[in-house]
Amino acid sequence: GAVVSQHPSRVICKSGTSVKIECRSLDFQATTMFWYRQFPKKSLMLMATSNEGSKATYEQGVEKDKFLINHASLTLSTLTVTSAHPEDSSFYICSARTQGGSPLHFGNGTRLTVT
Amino acid sequence: AQTVTQSQPEMSVQEAETVTLSCTYDTSENNYYLFWYKQPPSRQMILVIRQEAYKQQNATENRFSVNFQKAAKSFSLKISDSQLGDTAMYFCAFMKQGGSEKLVFGKGMKLTVNP
């Protein structure tokens, strides 16, 4: 149980285009999802907390206009990287939990490469 | 703000031996959770073990156990009978109880199990 599916697993896009990454909780409802970014051989950096039906809460230093987060339902959150640049190339991971205090379950991550 | 420190960037151990990974954290909170996550080369984040701060008893999960010292703010992970499949990055993480309950990760430690 508690499976989180993230799609796509890999994406290559051209500089200036936008890319959407989906995060779905397959067998549970997630009122809160989290989006992380991970650079090579580095830790996970929280980008934003996504709450169903409301605006996401972004961490300091994360551009909300560049990284658009939508949490339209209890099972789906999306991250859109707008006007992507090569420095946005990274590994993006979403996570969700079943209820307060329970551990986070992670998606498989998306490797974004901007050329 | 909470911080999580993993001071050992890398360790290696022989198969079947025991290894201990260290983690310290800083918080003024009294109610929180601590986690160890494993990230193998596939980059999937896998929950290894979880500890509630209010519990004095150390958590155990098969070959994995923790030494939780609340006063010292220390949370080490012991892996017994190390297996080749234990080779991965290991992240210690802190989560305050209540509120957004977001995870704060340490920098991670690369563990290599040698045959």
In short:
The complex is a heterodimer of chains A (115) and B (115). In chain A, 0% of the residues lie in helices and 51% in strands. With 115 residues, chain A is mainly beta.
What coarse outline of chain B follows from CA principal-axis ratios?
Answer: globular
Question: What's the tally of helices of chain A?
Answer: 0
How far apart the termini of chain B lie comes to 41 Å
The low-confidence parts of chain A are none
Strand content of chain A: over 45%
Low-confidence stretches of chain B: none
**In percent terms, what proportion of residues of chain B is strand?**
over 45%
Number of strands of chain A: 11
Determine the structural class of chain B based on helices, strands and strand pairing.
mainly beta
Largest beta sheet of chain A, briefly?
Answer: 7 strands, mixed
The number of helical runs of chain B is: 0
What about the largest sheet of chain B? Answer: 6 strands, mixed
**SSE sequence of chain A, one letter per element:** EEEEEEEEEEE
Question: What best-fitting shape of chain A do the alpha-carbon axes yield?
Answer: globular
- The radius of gyration computed from the alpha-carbon positions of chain A, rounded to a whole number of angstroms, is 13 Å
Strand tally of chain B, please? 12
- How much helix, percentage-wise, in residues of chain A? under 10%
